[in-house]
């Protein structure tokens, strides 16, 4: 009982914006602790408010700088902001102390910002399993917006990005090859394109390349039900274009609300998440099979010819389900 | 009802030694057909009699030649013999028409021999899933001995060999590197070592190498409960030493009966088999999750904050079990 009160207490404090309670709750879901389920259940009623924004792009496009600039602009608006850095090499991860980290540190002492780097340690479902739980903590903590920063556009990044309401793909001039390589992937997942380092040579060419690629996709002019990903030019290091990005995030949120797209995405996201947890649970139970006494008994009957192995497997699955 | 009678009929004919019924039953278990379970149930009461002998070894040791020679010697004794070739590149597989295949063809027209190459097509559990079912067919068909021929000593071969009562590992002179590489693996799985091509240079050295390796293992002289794998020299192409191999197979069977080792192995084998089938069943059910209506309903509750994803996963697993 003491434990349950403690979790409820932590959640109550997190909802008031206490950063230490937020940090502790994230640690609990990240470590797949015995209290994970308790935490998840306690958070459920307070979730669903935050706009989850995924930020992804190849290394070198200025992702951390952009995240930092977005946090600053959101704070200036009075929004409560959460940041989840799911890149182990991120400056937020407590690893290398880069300039960006110092910049983020300013925000870290600001009561309206929660910054967290995600580790995969211990959690049954890995990063893809821990991230949605951490998102729920920040959501319940009253964040208006949660930025999920990942690196690259590989499979695991796409998994994480699939947890977002709005996905921002960052590009930089002179990385045309990267665009080609990631073409199919980023066209599918991007709601907003940001061409950062727009003062560099080739920025306009990158924008043209993108426009061309987008023109190849499905196109229905004047059809409000289709979202056409805008392309925003920024110089994040100077804060230029950042408010344009925020405007597009707002516009996307309003579009999702109007069309019901947000509900569809959240529904799909919840299905994926539940399925992943159920799968991990079943795997864990299968691992426990040999420990129990059911399997040897069934095997004995098969050896004696009293039962065939398929019938025995049926009985075993039955016993797992009730176990 | 007609279907059930047909399977019962096939089993009855197979028990009388009808090769076409045997072949059809193996095809049914191999293809994971809807009648697989029916066949497995119908076979169960008639299984457990045959001695299952696994034969394995690297390519080039003369495995097919040895199998063919063993079949000939067993037939000369009046034994009913089954052969399962689980190597897709085996001459028995219907692929390349090698000399060995021609030799085996002689046996194929002999009513006391059933020869079958195993394909993995369709079966949920792959080769490791299909082989024990095919073994049961040959067992029920009244085979005194079933030879399971595999290639190499890789993981899948060890899986297949683990279905045997007695495992024969074949070696040939001049393949010392192979012995070293496979050392740990073959010492654990071999009940009988055969050094084939014993008329070649280095045969005695191969025997000495093996003796040395075996001497490094656990050794309890005069302890009847421990089986010391014998080493038999053969020239399979000339039929030399083959009867010595059969003698060792008999000796091993008698030892297993005396010590209860056969029951222990069969118990372990049945456990592994049931577990694999149960695992395949659970995986298939997980694949069905998205098709049903349970997951969307649960996801809706999670999105609405009425349920947390762990509670939803519990419910989903519950529904799988009863489904």
From TrEMBL, chains A, B:
<feature type="domain" description="AAA+ ATPase">
    <location>
        <begin position="49"/>
        <end position="193"/>
    </location>
</feature>
<dbReference type="InterPro" id="IPR005129">
    <property type="entry name" value="GTPase_ArgK"/>
</dbReference>
<protein>
    <submittedName>
        <fullName>Methylmalonyl Co-A mutase-associated GTPase MeaB</fullName>
    </submittedName>
</protein>
<dbReference type="InterPro" id="IPR003593">
    <property type="entry name" value="AAA+_ATPase"/>
</dbReference>
<keyword id="KW-0547">Nucleotide-binding</keyword>
<dbReference type="InterPro" id="IPR027417">
    <property type="entry name" value="P-loop_NTPase"/>
</dbReference>
<keyword id="KW-0342">GTP-binding</keyword>
<comment type="similarity">
    <text>Belongs to the SIMIBI class G3E GTPase family. ArgK/MeaB subfamily.</text>
</comment>
<keyword id="KW-0378">Hydrolase</keyword>
<dbReference type="InterPro" id="IPR052040">
    <property type="entry name" value="GTPase/Isobutyryl-CoA_mutase"/>
</dbReference>
<keyword id="KW-0143">Chaperone</keyword>
<dbReference type="Pfam" id="PF03308">
    <property type="entry name" value="MeaB"/>
</dbReference>
């Amino acid at each position: 009982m003491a434990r349950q009160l403690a979790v409820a207490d932590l959640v109550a404090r997190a909802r008031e914006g206490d950063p230490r309670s937020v940090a502790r709750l994230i640690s609990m879901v990240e470590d797949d602790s015995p209290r994970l389920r308790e935490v998840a259940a306690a958070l459920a009623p307070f979730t669903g408010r935050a706009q989850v924004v995924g930020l992804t792009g190849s290394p070198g496009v200025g992702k951390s700088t952009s995240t930092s600039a977005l946090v600053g602009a959101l704070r200036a608006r009075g929004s409560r902001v959460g940041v989840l850095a799911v890149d182990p090499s991120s400056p937020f991860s407590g690893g290398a102390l880069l300039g960006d980290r110092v910049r983020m540190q300013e925000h870290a002492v600001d009561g309206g910002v929660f910054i967290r780097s995600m580790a995969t340690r211990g959690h049954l479902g890995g990063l893809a399993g821990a991230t949605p739980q951490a998102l729920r903590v920040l959501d319940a903590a009253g964040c208006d917006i949660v930025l999920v920063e990942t690196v690259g556009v590989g499979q695991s990044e796409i998994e994480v990005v699939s947890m977002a309401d709005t996905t921002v793909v960052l590009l930089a001039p002179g990385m045309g090859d990267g665009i080609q390589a990631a073409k199919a992937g980023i066209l599918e997942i991007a709601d907003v394109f940001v061409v950062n380092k727009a003062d560099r040579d080739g920025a306009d060419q990158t924008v043209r390349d993108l426009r061309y690629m987008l023109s190849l996709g499905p196109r229905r002019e004047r059809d409000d039900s289709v979202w056409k990903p805008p392309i925003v030019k920024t110089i994040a290091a100077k804060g230029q274009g950042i408010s344009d990005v925020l405007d597009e995030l707002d516009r996307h949120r309003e579009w999702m609300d109007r069309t019901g797209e947000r509900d569809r995405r959240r529904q799909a996201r919840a299905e994926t998440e539940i399925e992943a947890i159920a799968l991990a649970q079943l795997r864990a139970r299968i691992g426990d099979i040999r420990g129990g006494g059911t399997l040897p008994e069934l095997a004995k009957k098969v050896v004696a010819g009293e039962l065939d192995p398929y019938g025995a497997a049926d009985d075993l699955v039955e016993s797992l389900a009730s176990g």
